[in-house]
Amino acid sequence: MVDLDIEKAMKELPVIPDVAMKIVGMAEESMDLSFGQLEDLIKLDPILSAKILKVANSALYARQREITSLKLAISLIGFKTIKSLVLLISASNLFPKYRKTQFYKLFWRHSLYSAFTSKRLTLLNATKDWAEQLFLTGLFHDIGQIALYNTDPAGYERILKRRQEENLRIRTLEQEYFGTTHTEVGAEVLTRWNFPPLFVEVALFHGRDVVTSANRKWIAIVSMSDILANEFEGFPLPPEKESVLRELSQTIALRMEDIEVLRKDFLRTLKEDPLYRECEQLFQLG
Q1: Which helix (H) or strand (E) holds 168?
Q2: How far is Cα 186 from Cα 199, in angstroms, rounded to an integer?
């Protein structure tokens, strides 16, 4: 086992821009006031402003004339989606030195699959108001993995290789090597980044057999998304994971028939989703 200095590891982490965290923390009530505040905040970050305008002019929101006004772009995209885009853009700029590694691409592909699956499961569950929130918690649920990779890339690559060869749980291998897990580290990272408590709990508890949190339902949705994302990446699910999916479906009150439809159509519909295509460009996954 390596001697992991958590404090040193945390100090070496990049920081989510303050502007992004202020936007994520904005309330959605009093929309007129919020839109004005949102524009003022985004203007503080020229790179963020440019990328928001780029998205507004993309296939996602294609118009006959170019959109050059940030105010119009915000109005067009909408408050909730803007908040998601801000975090997507911020996330895509984390750990730039690993951008060309296989780990980076696999990590963000899995995170995006988890995010989009979480959103769809939430909509199936008839909880539309939570869809964007669950999208973002799905995006960041495994952030502890990239934090651990940052401390010891070669060591973490060996963990991933053993996971594939020996079919062991990644948390078991992380505990053996680092003395901690990506779920524990992820919760600490999100706490230090001042993310809302739901994000912290999802990072900490997803994939656990027993969850007593009041947010158990949302944690179950991301846990299911995490499992399905592995399948969408081409890894056959072992029988025990199929059993876990059935248990989770009961927790979130969804029929397995609906989940089977999602499993069958996910990749096809995802490739038709303009927002996902934007995400592939943001994270350079093409």
Answers
A1: none
A2: 9
Tell me: pLDDT of 224 over 70: yes
Rounded to an integer, what distance in angstroms lies between the CA atom of residue 286 and that of residue 282?
10
Q: Do residues 165 and 157 make contact, with C-beta atoms less than 8 angstroms apart?
A: no
Q: What pTM value is reported for the model?
A: 0.92
Using DSSP's 3-state secondary structure scheme, residue 193 falls into: coil
Q: Is 186:166 a contact under the CB 8 Å cutoff?
A: no
Confirm if 185 and 148 have CB atoms less than 8 A apart: yes
Angle at 196 between CA 195 and CA 197, to 5 degrees: 115
Residue written as token pair 């057999």: 209
Q: Is 89 helix (H, G, I), strand (E, B) or coil?
A: helix
The residue behind tokens 């649920």 is 141
Per CATH, the number for 96-286 is 1.10.3210.10
- DSSP H stretches of helix in 131-238: 131-140, 143-151, 153-166, 170-178, 182-192, 197-205, 216-232
Domain boundaries, the chain: 17-93, 96-286
Which runs of E-coded beta strand occur in the chain?
Answer: none
CA dihedral angle for residue 19, residue 86, residue 132, residue 26, rounded to 10 degrees: 20
Contact 141, 186 (CB under 8 A): yes
Distance in angstroms (rounded) separating the CA atoms of residues 241 and 247:
10
Q: Please give the single-letter amino acid code of residue 89.
A: I
How far from chain centre, in Å, is Cα 36? 27
pLDDT, tens only, 248-284: 999 999 999 999 999 999 999 998 888 898 899 899 9
Hey, what are 21's tokens?
């965290």
C-beta separation of 188 from 77 below 8 A: no
